[in-house]
Amino acid sequence: MSMERLKVPGERLTRVCDPESLGFETTSEVEPLAGAIAQDRAIRALELGLGIDAEGFNIFVSGPAGTGRNATIRERLERVARDKPTPPDWGYLHNFRDPSQSVAVALPGGEIRTFARDMDALIRTCRAEIPSASESEDCVHRVRLIRSVLNTMRGKYAEREDLAKYLGEVEADMVLNIHAFKSAGDVGSARRGADSEDDFFTRYRVNGIVENAPRDGAPIVFEHNPNYYNLFGRIEYRASMGSMTTDHTVIRAGAIHRANGGYLVLQANDLLGNPVSWDALKLSLRSGEIRVENIGERNSAFPASSIRPQPIPMNVKIILVGSPANLRRTRRPYLSADTGLAWLKNGSWSPSKRIQSTYPRRAASWDR
């Protein structure tokens, strides 16, 4: 073959772009590109996974760092979440029948704070009016006063059967403990035992742990430090007369509570580096419940005196973001066997793929 035939003319070695063909003067006139570049199959798989609302469908996004995984996930989630219903607020109430089992209550978005304020106002009114009546009125009149104060609350929440029942229990407890209101009006007694009295009236307070108003749509939570307490919340304690006490008002929410009814995005490497969090997440996915319990109490053979809040129904789509190595770790027998983990039970994936949809045999590559 003649070498002359292999020569390439100089004008063919350079691609020339005609500026007039671009349609703009400077790049400031160009709309920024949304989404990832050249990841069409990955995006389709991600959208498929996000579009499946059935229980047990979660997503693992696998690929090299720096390829826009988290940014793309956030952008896609914001599109999807805005059209989803806003989940309810969640809070905890005192359980008058069993104080160790705090009662979980769900209210439409924005109403848990309103209910908490109404209960605080009720406490202030009762503490102010009942002691003044108790000095001159007999027990029957004091009971009538309690019922009169509660009537407004009953009327406001009459359509909520659970709250109506709770307010009935509040009334019965106030009548049973009428002496506590009498001492609340005694200035000398208040000075001597203010802390103990405040502890007593704490039983009537509402602890709102999750507020979803004025959000429109489903919540999106990125938790970049998925230790156990950040994910699942905690039960706090307070020092009182030389001992540690707790109640429903110091139950704190975690990321999984805030994401309930929406989406929780976790970095797989950080989650797998926290074995307690990883095991607790698998347990929640199996049970379909979110429980608040401290680590020591959860693993102790002899539980300390504490409270066990009622679990909250779990409705969260989990999205793990990690490397192919992280994906392989979740597939190892000692991590995944018999765990019932949703995306392992319902999904089917190949080690050669980079992004996994939870739909069986549907996968796409997320490449650099």
Question: What does this protein look like?
Answer:
The chain is α+β, with helices and mostly antiparallel strands. The protein is built from 15 helices and 15 strands. The protein has helices at 40-51, 69-81, 111-134, 139-156, 161-176, 178-184, 187-201, 228-232, 255-258, 268-272, 275-287, 295-299, 324-330, 333-336, 342-345; strands at residues 59-62, 89-93, 103-107, 207-210, 220-223, 234-235, 238-240, 243-245, 251-252, 263-267, 289-290, 312-313, 317-322, 355-356, 363-364. It has a six-stranded mixed sheet. Strand 7 and strand 8 form a beta hairpin. Helix 3 runs antiparallel to helix 4 (139-156), helix 3 (111-134) packs across helix 6 and helix 4 (139-156) packs antiparallel against helix 5. The protein is elongated, with a radius of gyration of 29 Å. The protein starts with 39 loop residues before the first helix and ends with a strand. The model is unreliable at 187-194 and 333-365 (pLDDT under 50).
Secondary-structure-based class equals: alpha+beta
Mean pLDDT: 81
Number of strands: 15
The first-to-last residue Cα distance is: 39 Å
Low-confidence stretches: 187-194, 333-365
Binned, the helix content reads: 40-55%
Question: Taking strands numbered 1, 2, ... along the chain, how are they ordered across the largest sheet?
Answer: 5-10-13-1-14-15
Mind telling me the C-alpha Rg? 29 Å
